[in-house]
Design a protein that fits this description.
Layout: E1 2-5, H1 15-24, E2 30-35, H2 47-56, E3 61-66, H3 74-79, E4 84-88, H4 95-104, E5 108-113, E6 131-135, H5 150-164, E7 169-173, H6 181-187, E8 191-194, H7 196-199, H8 204-218
Parallel strand pairs: 1-8, 2-3, 3-4, 4-5, 5-6, 6-7, 7-8
Helix pairs in contact: 6-8
The chain binds D-xylitol-5-phosphate and zinc ion.
Length: 219
Amino acid sequence: MKISPSILSADFTKLTGELAALEKGGADYIHVDVMDGRFVPNITIGPSIVEAIKRATTVPLDVHLMIEEPERYIDDFAKAGSSIITVHVEATRHLHKVMQAIKGHGLKAGVTLNPGTPAVMLEPVIDDADLILVMSVNPGFSGQGFIPSSLRKIREVRKMIDASGRKIELQVDGGIKTSNIKEAAAAGADVFVSGSGVFSTPDYGKTIAELKKQALSGR
Ligand code: DX5
Ligand code: ZN
């Protein structure tokens, strides 16, 4: 059970302190939401900020690309210090090739689906994925509510992963809090992104510990 707090909800005027608090608080990954104003309506950060984040923490960076044609930027985000790069099946015409490019840098390749995209889209790349992310909100903003039908998709993907016999992490992202993480864990997720669910609380370490405890109770 891993917790990947999304720094999109952090206070960017004190990012070093926020990262230190997450590291001290036991975060397994730092989730970095990259948005281009095209694939999603919002614009967030680019490779130079990822590179700065990398210098400020030893926690592996879990970089979620919500950008059109991610193939154009894999080299930049790899050089910036990503450990995992996750791309959307809807954002590229060359999914298999993009995933090979990520692996070519020695990184974990992640693949993800919008809430409206069926799990079957993952089948052709199941042998290449190190992580599958089920989006439980429509990407673009933090602080949205968890979409209940995501649980069905998590269960479906869990079956696909188990049938593959491969070691693939199953991540869920969007609206995860201490109050609902148990259900997502019971459905089969083992890596949990949480933005507002961590950053709206006073003690990140305490919240991360509670998230893990609740997740384990769902298993
Ligand atoms: C949504 C992002 C998420 C988001 C999570 O587009 O991919 O990672 O920041 O934030 P919460 O946990 O607040 O939904
Ligand atoms: Zn994300």
